[in-house]
């Protein structure tokens, strides 16, 4: 199973800000509501939602709403912002949509999503819903996009590769071990240059920040802060002295070098374990081979260690789910929404290692092995990107990918960080 959940989620050619300025409140008035049986269209993104969850959603919805049908339309993370901007403002909008947690603020602030009332919020989970994801989907004190699932990052390794090398217990040891293990054929830590998600823990653990909002509403970016620079220096050390991944590569098919035995440590979303443990000869001719019987058979995981030990603060990947403001059937859309957030449906997601929307269901994620335990530790300490409606523009302009490619190429960290901060502030304060 190829789970490149976070790759391309930021890539969009047309900025959302321009679309919104042209449309005013782009959500506009809802389409005239229909009654009786009908069709509900649910947009899910990528392959993270497993077939058994999709089947449960469709079957349960159609049993509960006699005569109505539910259609799942899978979308790609690549170009998602552009596609949603057009579709949600149009006359043929989908009814329920999945959206990346870092993108949610752009759409909630623009009026694209139907408000979830206080009573509905309590019925759907209330205080049991993942707090950080609830915040990501709120706007001006109201709820619009509730949590769908969270996926934390785990550091994967194979004892066959690691041998007698001790597992690092602090962030400094992680950096040192990566450099010590690196050879021409082995990356101590495999780190493609465009992967900025794995860099954020180094910023946070060293006391830096991504961007913070002052009392006057202006944003201050912090990659060039003292802690930010300290973290970026560690990032550059791994990228240039402990890593063989190309400096301009994306975070795609990370299981390939791992299964080739070319990786000691690999920091990736927890669900990549299924890609590593896929058969060496996939049934799908276009599928990517795994290494279930070799490096996958003794696959282990640990939470990225923090500066002073314990689990580091890591980026919380995952999605929110919302009802489109222009859904022609908000009643049926809410019926589907309730199923998506039900304990039964969310337990299916937990069964494949995704952390459910409700914290009370976290225990259903298998934590009997090191990977599950590490994922739970990381999830408990996870953080999100700045909650600005313009953060989607930062991602769409590929500013972070460009900056970390330069860092991976050995360019001066302070110069790169200062320029990145200036570019981020220009967008967030425009």
Q: State the helical fraction.
A: 25-40%
Taking pLDDT < 50 over at least 5 consecutive residues as the criterion, the unreliable ranges are: 1-25
Strand content: 15-25%
Described by strand count, sense and barrel closure, the largest sheet is:
6 strands, mixed
Distance between the termini: 41 Å
Morphology: globular
Kindly state the number of beta strands.
16
Looking across the biggest beta sheet, what order are the strands in?
2-1-3-14-6-15
Q: What does the radius of gyration come to?
A: 21 Å
Number of helices: 18
Structural class: alpha/beta
Mean pLDDT: 90
Short description:
37% of the residues lie in helices and 16% in strands. It is of the alpha/beta class and 430 residues long.
